[in-house]
Amino acid sequence: MTTLDRTRYLRRRVTNAIILGVSLFTVAFALFFLAWILWTLFSNGLGHVTTKVFTQMTPPPGSSGGLLNAIAGSLYMVLMATLIGTPVGVLAGTYLAEFGRAGWLAPTTRFVNDILLSAPSIVIGLFVYEGVVHRMGHFSGWAGALALALIVLPVVVRTTENMLQLVPNSLREAAAALGAPQWKVVIMVSYRAARAGMLTGVLLAVARISGETAPLLFTALNNQFWSNDLNGPMASLAAIIFQFAMSPYEDWHHLAWAGALLITLFVLGLNILARSIFKKSEAGH
């Protein structure tokens, strides 16, 4: 090895060590703040997660209570948003991956979907407020579910398209060679091969909307009482956390910490479930 080669080798080793050190530092930096946030949530919220949180309504200041109506309202709106956004997203992603490989409509749809995917949630809330709440003349759970569905939609579209594009064309060609029409190839072959990844995308979309606050403040607003009527204002866990955390009452602060911990655990559980399903599908292939 010549002197020039040794110099180049040493320079590469030094560069590699520097990049590796910077990478490890940034990872440690991010993990430190993540651990700090989780520790703060658990230390402030775990002691206040009692049976009352799941069995009693949100209380007035100075009295005990829970978050039952807020939890139920969040579940209602997240469920309706998922039921609205998932079928539309799956069908749109299927068109992009299976039918829209030529022409102008597919690139335009991808462009619009990318804009919607990166749009701030507060903008979506304002859009639904102007288009639904203002015209109806009142806040409603349906408006909140629609705002959340618009957040679910682009995530499901992108995930569905990507998962279907990973399905080998040889499977489609084999099914077509047996005489199967294209719609049956999509349902019986493409969907079966990509169902784990598509389900992962839906779970990630649900995890994303579970903690959204801004769209619900403009659409569903809030409700201190129990309500399963989506035509009127509806409580949500995120809105209650915002209201209670900004209040001067210590008992409300305790419930806000408990609610924040519940949302965090729910989102964490959905992410773990989604990743485990995706890893199982990869292992199966």
Key traits:
MetI-like fold, mainly alpha, 285 residues, globular
- Total helix count? 11
Classify the secondary structure makeup into a structural class: mainly alpha
- How widely separated are the two ends? 45 Å
- SSE arrangement, N to C: HHHHHHHHHHH
Poorly predicted residue ranges: none
Q: What is the strand content?
A: under 5%
| CATH topology tier name of the largest domain | MetI-like fold
The CATH architecture of the largest domain can be named as Orthogonal Bundle
Cα Rg: 24 Å
How would you state the average pLDDT, rounded?
92
Helix content: over 70%
Give a quick rundown of the structure.
The protein is an all-alpha fold. The chain contains eleven helices and no strands.
Q: Helix and strand layout, with pairings?
A:
Layout: H1 3-45, H2 51-55, H3 68-99, H4 105-118, H5 121-136, H6 141-165, H7 169-177, H8 182-210, H9 214-219, H10 237-245, H11 250-284
Protein architecture, described:
The structure is a single chain. This protein has 285 residues and is mostly helical. The chain has two domains: 1-46; 51-277, MetI-like fold (Orthogonal Bundle), CATH 1.10.3720.10. 78% of the residues lie in helices and 0% in strands. The chain has eleven helices and no strands. One of its GO terms (biological process) is phosphate ion transmembrane transport. InterPro entries: MetI-like, MetI-like_sf, Phosphate_PstA, Phosphate_transprt_permease. Belongs to the binding-protein-dependent transport system permease family. CysTW subfamily.
